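Q: Protein A?
A:
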Amino acid sequence: MFAFVIGIGGGSAAGKTAVAEQLRGLLEPLPVDVINQDRYFRKSDELPRYEAPASGRSWPDHNHPDSFDFSRLKQDVAAARNGGQAVIIVEGILVLHDPELRELMDLKLFVDAASDERIVRRIRRNLAWGYDLDEICDFYLDSVRYRHEEFCEPTRSEADIVIPGGHDERPKRDELLAQVAQRVQSALGATRMSERAGLK
């Protein structure tokens, strides 16, 4: 039986990982595997560069589709579909960008959070990782916000459901994710019934 594959896209620090983990909990006791797109970043010397139009500074472009090894990601998702798990969750800023990867998904979600909330989360997270505040802010202003509008935000239109990721939107997010979990469970139940019927 093929696993049910869920794609979760959205901007940097929108709450994708938290949504994936919440959904994993809602789907218990089903076996769920989470594949994070960050595991497919190319090596530092293979990353494209971004020249900031205003400052002229050059940055490694972590928010461009060419920054990821989509070929390996698609191979791993395709293999995971038949790997014994009931559900596969694929999450990352550009998982809804590639048409062939989207074809492997049974359900596509986009986590939406306001830009001011995302930058606050990003600053806190990157400070905890040991980055300098000025570097975090410069990289966001020079690169991240432009690449978000260019590559990430357009993938919202590919989503089946937009999940609110804001701090004050938790009740609506909980409601929608509960509906998603029910949808997945129903789909898997229908698949099992169809398989049993085929064995008769």
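Q: Protein B?
A:
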Amino acid sequence: MPTTAAPQEPHVEPYVQAGEHTRALHFNIHEVQSRMRLADPHALDLEYTRTMMGFLLFQPAPRQLTMIGLGGGSLAKFCHRHLPRTRLRVVEINPHVVALRDTFHVPPDDDRFTVVLGDGARVVREDAEPCDVLLVDGYDSQGLPARLSSQRFYDDCCAALTPGGVMVANLHTGHRRFEVCVDRIRRSFDDEVLVVEAADLTNSVVFAFRGRRPGARRRGPLRAAAGLDPFVLETLRAELAAVAAAASRRPRPGTELPRGAVDVA
């Protein structure tokens, strides 16, 4: 397994809770880190993960996608299956989480999919290969680590993107440092930011763009550009509509969305 240098510190071992229809990853009984449907292991069971896929409105066919945080692999599996032209790299700092990849049906490494054991903050700071999409969902047993929410980290995230690239960060809406994190992201990305509250009201998904924020795409061009089948678009329909609506509420001079641009229903 590829590795990058990671801080030498103890990592809490998660546990798996099996239900009749689902399998969930936990650090404690009160919070679900990831959840998989046994009947459809590649589905996005948690609503906020579907909202994070809203990046498809802005980057429908990314060449390189980097994820910070593996968890139960929900986003990794979905992208691996439905974005066949995209190179995917997932960075996870906790070896106990990586050890559960087979339990959650995470695919093996191949020429376009790699799970890296290492420090995500260091990867975005030191990696010379830019990415089109950067998904940040790296939580541990204590919540959002300081190394993944500092001003320097968000600065590095912006620098790690290609021009027009997008960072997507999952934040807990009720966290005491939520507004601090959003403000840092705004500073790092020159306020080219959208904040979309997930329907569960416990998570907010922040989309931050390197360069001017583009308008959301219509549903038809999205399908054609990304090669997505109607089933996938239907799976993400409500969340794509929410992200597109957020984009349409904040037009910029000269970049107003054309009539119907948010038609993803």
